[in-house]
Amino acid sequence: MKLRQVDKPQYRKVSNQVQFGLIAILAISSVIFGQILIALLGNATVEAGQPTGNFYFNFGGVILGLMLCTFVVKHFREKPQYADVFYVWQLKQLQNKIFRKLNAVQAGAADNDVKALTILCFYYQSLALVYELDNNTLTMSEVNKQLAQLKQQIDDHNLTVNVDEFEPALLADF
Predict the structure, then answer these.
(1) Which of 85, 107, 137, 147 could form a disulfide with 124 if both were Cys (CB 3.0 to 4.6 A apart)?
(2) CA of 5: how far to CAs of 75, 84, 133, 159, in Å?
């Protein structure tokens, strides 16, 4: 995966629309599916002070609502207007994979392993990109500090590291 620039205002606008849309779809569809299940399979008579026994039908409505949201995401992720949102989502997933192996990668980087250094460069640069897009200014200075230390290590040892050479397959070595 290559790092690329994302138009921040457009990304924020579309991301907010996607989040609001999914929340609305989940809330409305959960209630509708729950009511349909209760109407078809639930207890029709309700006695005052007694449980209705419809909890599992309501829970089933939420599960069906989640399934509908998953279908909507799978369908709309291919649309060009959602490309940036899907790109950042994939980038965050990749960051999570790297984070799970971060200790091993950092140990390799300490030994000046070029693969580990490439992974760390990609990781820190992608974190900076995502933090900038999400307005996460609290941890941006720490990421920039770690990236500067990493670049200093690369320069001190006259190594060549190209972030564009990063492939998720590099993680298999750690």
Answers:
(1) 147
(2) 24, 9, 10, 26
Which residue's entry shows tokens 């924020």? Answer: 12
Token pair for 145: 């500090």
pTM: 0.81
Structure tokens at 164: 């564009």
- 3-class secondary structure for 7-22? CHHHHHHHHHHHHHHH
Tokens of 39: 């109407």
Contact status, residue 151 vs residue 139, Cβ threshold 8 Å: no
pLDDT, averaged per 10 consecutive residues of the chain (174 residues), comes to 92 95 97 94 71 86 97 91 93 96 93 92 95 89 92 90 91 90
DSSP, collapsed to helix, strand or coil, labels residue 139 as coil
Q: Is 35 exposed, middle or buried (0-12, 13-18, 19+ CB in 10 A)?
A: middle
For the record, the structure tokens of 23 come out as 């929340």
**Pair of tokens at residue 163:** 């972030």
